[in-house]
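Researcher: Here's my situation. A collaborator sent me these components and asked whether they could plausibly form a single complex. I don't have experimental data yet, so a predicted model of the whole assembly would be a useful starting point for our discussion.
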Amino acid sequence: MLELSTTSLTIVGVIAGIAIVALVIAVLLRRQVLAADTGSPRMQEIAGAIEEGAQAFLRRQFRTLGIFAVIVFGLLFLLPADPEVKIGRAIAFLFGAGFSAAIGYLGMSLAVRANVRVAAVASKPDGRRIGAGIAFRTGGVVGMGVVGLGLLGAAGVVLVYRGDAPAVLEGFGFGAALLAMFMRVGGGIFTKAADVGADLVGKVEQGIPEDDPRNAATIADNVGDNVGDCAGMAADLFESYAVVLVASLILGRAAMGEQGLILPLIVTAVGAVVAALGVVITKVRGSESGLTAINRGFYVSAVVGVLLAAIATLVYLPTTFGAIQGVSEDLADHPGNPQLVVIAAVAIGVVLAGVILWLTGYYTGTTSGPTRHVASTSRTGAATVVLSGIGVGFSSAVYTAGIIAAAICGVFLIAGGNVWLALFLVALAGCGLLTTVGVIVAMDTFGPISDNAQGVAEMSGEVDEAGAQVLTDLDAVGNTTKAITKGIAIATAVLAATALFGSYADAVTTALEEIGDAGAATADGVVAAMVSYDIVSPITLVGVILGGATVFLFSGLAIDAVTRAAGAIVFEVRRQFREMPGIMTGKERPDYARVVDMCTKDSLRELATPGLLAAFAPIAVGFGLGVGPLAGFLAGTIGAGVLMAVFLANSGGAWDNAKKIVEDGHYGGKGSEAHEATIIGDTVGDPFKDTAGPAINPLIKVMNLVSLLIAPAVVQLSVPADANHGLRIGIALAAAAIALLAVLASRRRAGKVDTAEDIDNAIATEAAGS
Amino acid sequence: MLELSTTSLTIVGVIAGIAIVALVIAVLLRRQVLAADTGSPRMQEIAGAIEEGAQAFLRRQFRTLGIFAVIVFGLLFLLPADPEVKIGRAIAFLFGAGFSAAIGYLGMSLAVRANVRVAAVASKPDGRRIGAGIAFRTGGVVGMGVVGLGLLGAAGVVLVYRGDAPAVLEGFGFGAALLAMFMRVGGGIFTKAADVGADLVGKVEQGIPEDDPRNAATIADNVGDNVGDCAGMAADLFESYAVVLVASLILGRAAMGEQGLILPLIVTAVGAVVAALGVVITKVRGSESGLTAINRGFYVSAVVGVLLAAIATLVYLPTTFGAIQGVSEDLADHPGNPQLVVIAAVAIGVVLAGVILWLTGYYTGTTSGPTRHVASTSRTGAATVVLSGIGVGFSSAVYTAGIIAAAICGVFLIAGGNVWLALFLVALAGCGLLTTVGVIVAMDTFGPISDNAQGVAEMSGEVDEAGAQVLTDLDAVGNTTKAITKGIAIATAVLAATALFGSYADAVTTALEEIGDAGAATADGVVAAMVSYDIVSPITLVGVILGGATVFLFSGLAIDAVTRAAGAIVFEVRRQFREMPGIMTGKERPDYARVVDMCTKDSLRELATPGLLAAFAPIAVGFGLGVGPLAGFLAGTIGAGVLMAVFLANSGGAWDNAKKIVEDGHYGGKGSEAHEATIIGDTVGDPFKDTAGPAINPLIKVMNLVSLLIAPAVVQLSVPADANHGLRIGIALAAAAIALLAVLASRRRAGKVDTAEDIDNAIATEAAGS
């Protein structure tokens, strides 16, 4: 085990202390939120039903995912590694997964109590300010939790495993990413099945408002906001945080030895301090909108973050690379000043976060051009709304991807073209970007809470018109903040994945060196192509195509799962309206629990397919085609992933807010044909922005980490002269078969509902019933 | 100049003869079509109006594109090359562009006469069989024209330039691809602006049927079928043909010397013979559907094609690589049998065409699961129709991309991992795929003609119900064949682009060798990264991201252009209904010409932006980041391009046929809510499948060929120690600025229509008017 100096250990100890302070702040903020007025008994009853549904879903989801986690825990022991690292990595995997689950649970459990409190204050004087405060503070709890647990995990591993920490941390990041991906997919399917189902019958068919208590899917819809947009998102951001840290530590150690290992922890600890500051200073002043306050909080904490990180770097690093102990050979005579280089990279990350914040706000905000353009196309019907939203999504994806690409190029130039330094700096830019994560999480949590508060208010019927308008405004802010968080999350994914590429190449090189001359040097023909990163080699290009295809397939599966599950909800809600005529007159209460239960079952069943695809696609490509094409595969997933994720998130956000523009009285206002057109747009956008889009972020990381973990095994089975190609191809085929069977199984489920006879029967039954 | 043997020249002479025979067959088929009954005076009047509009559009389009072509002709002289090659390449560019335009014009000019003939026979006894025959034969003319002109061009260049032919042919392929891209985009915007505009006012607002003569946009809609789906498609397939041939000849010469140069011409000449056979044997028998006959024609010609190509290869090639004169050094001791290797590659190409044919038919046909599933989701409204169509599009894209990837892997294994041989074989697989191009073009042309025939019949009111049903059936077949052609075209794009990658790498290597030790060998830092193909290098990855982004931006621009242009048509058609109340009662004739004129102007204005983007994005990336990232860029465009193209084509095809399923009486039939939902889906799909999707195919090739052409210049400006980095960065910035300004200009056009006041004014005007 590589030992660390006492200074380093002291610093890491202090950082662990900062992490614990962050967690204490989270507890204090939580108390503040819970101290607020809890509203009328009717409101509490509704909020109680939502809380119950959310708890039940998460419990069942954790049970399902627990099984997955145990299997993966076992599989980790099959991969070649140093025994001590192997055990540490597997245990760290469990911690990563556990923390990811815990932060999701924490977020959800507070959000379901905050919603009723926001609803309760809405009609009171100064309700907008206080409501926004409660919602934002709840987000603050989650934000401080993310920062605290992430930092604590990383610092803990470093304290225990010292120099071996990077390899062990791979497990931590993998656990966090895997669990977050499942929570994003499962929660995303739940929330949108309920939302789409509720809207299709309620708004479109029966013409009753959103969150009307006569709609049987309305409680499920509100449960969904908490399990998807809140728990899933919190886990997702935790995972982003963990994976960026992991990548930075691995690359830091490779580039700058011990100081490179500690530096990312310092930058991230600065982020924890900044997050606390951001959460405390973000307050709505006077009549300004919630978004203005949030933006101010973000920009202030971004500037403070850069300053603090700069000071810390100036203190911690020497002025020449040669003076850094354990610096890598090719960096020793690098002409740059490591202090300035690191500060510039961190600053690029922070600026990137700011630009994405602005750009996403521009594309999805209710006051800016693109969303107003989408709203204006409602005059020519739903088709043009869908088309213009897709156009907005495409362009916003391109500009976001372009800006991320520009940031990477900037970092690369700062590194003077030294690839290893560049990779470390990309990871540090990710750390810089994440210094603002506390505020970001708080912003995001704002969305589901204000959405829920609106639901509680509408269902209880106890909030007056002014109060309802307050909640509508908060909800519109929530739509934009949710889109912004997704943009930032995907930016971290690209930076982390780019950096992890370096770790991947390093793992491959190490594995090839172990084989020695007998393997790598004499490889030719097919084997040479299997280890070639050359993008002009046909099978590397095949890897790129397959990587992009995996992103498309994953997105399609997630969207299909929502369409299917929502269809089932539609039939159930229709059935309740038909069989219980008292519902419409308000005399009978719909069976909310049954819809919640259906959503729970469907989403847990549906999450397996995309999950298995993400885990097994890189295994099939890696063992089947080699480490070179697997690198191409990862490049394809990053390229297609960032574009698809932003496209899905922003088109969805634009549709949602275009609907709000029409509801504010434009183009005919509520109940007009234009309104109906925007409702269709919004419904199309639902699974885009809340199921498929956000799940791509953890997807990219899961596939990267799986590739990193299997790389040595792939090399061992493909390169040596006596390589076991039979076993290699067997593993590839088995992995491909598992992924394919999972996809076919989900198709079969679709087929079951949709054979021609079933459809005709369903129609006949419905016709007979009505 | 490398001389060719007399044997080779004789073979090429014979091939040129075959090309001329193919053209003669096209003339004969054309006479057969024109000999058919031309219908009633009313029908002829309508067809005349369509013809006039189509001619006017193409004339104006060619005038615009002529200016572009002349500018590019001049720019080609700025690029470094041997003077003789430079002149030849520029002239070949003009020929490629001219042939592309000619084939588009030829297809359109016959299609506008065939439509009325198909409409005229529909009500007659045996109308289905005869109508399908006329439509298919018209396609045959275009198919033979594509094959004849493509082969004639390639053979002609080889006869004149002998061994220098490959470099000169780059110009030929580039001209064909550039013109085809513009024709695809311009025609695609025209056709869908008219179609969407007509549907939105006609079907959705006024509730009148498609092609109702009271709709002012109906003539424009039919003109669009001819200029977009027919002329644009014909140019596109010609371009595919030309570029695959170019890639094969370049790589063939590199791998196998003279015989490698001639072999692709032989395989393609076999394709010409097979195409003639396919067109002649494809006849509808008894009561079978048009699709069955077309499929039979395809499969028969595919099998015959493989057999003939195999015989030709066995005769032409020796049994060992060593026996091939001028074989490349690393291939000389390759253990395989070149005959078998080549036959296997060609067979893989043909099989790939067959699989794509089947797969696309499965995903978009009216009788198979996916489209029926989309139709069934109409029971829950437009949103679920849109979502399920997107799901179908995503999965079909993944499977199509997966199969193309599998074909490349297969070829790679056959080549025993020898990269150069593999690249040549990929190109040969493309030639194999294109042996079926004659039948494919005929299949595709079927679509717009039957669509138009339906239009003529509806407008004239002179076709009885049975005849209308015949035309509806033919139109549904057309929807599927159109989707199939797009699948095949994109497969050729991937194969051609993969192969061109090899030419690209070769061009870079040659340029680096010319610089010698002073440059490449000593390059380090940033410059080393600029010439690195390593996918794990951050800026190569940036290239991949930017490549994918370009595809997304291009797609978004094309879709936005249609949304904008269609919006203008909607307001115009509404205005005519309002100001000329006699239209609705049939007493007044709408002003068809004005709508045609608007579509013409709008589409010609809108085509510039995507065109400039395609041409200048690779220039910006190449000069800005270097040849390595440019390779990453190309990989990104191929990966994202194939997925996006198939997604757009197949989701559009599925929506179109889902609408047909409902119109056939399912889920409530015509006029039901389900019908309205599928109309919305179909309208969303219109710009997907007929504007953005098909234009991606030439886009990929244009970007590849631009990169190939600029590669030596990029190397000269970036690698040598005294490289002019100022000029390099200046060129990159200028190219980026041109692309960006073009995009912003199109946004400004959007902005002009959509400022808040304009919208409010527009609404006020309309409200006052109605």
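Model: Some features of this prediction you could bring to your collaborator: Residues 104 and 234 of chain A are 5 Å apart (CA to CA). Chain A has 22 helices and no strands.
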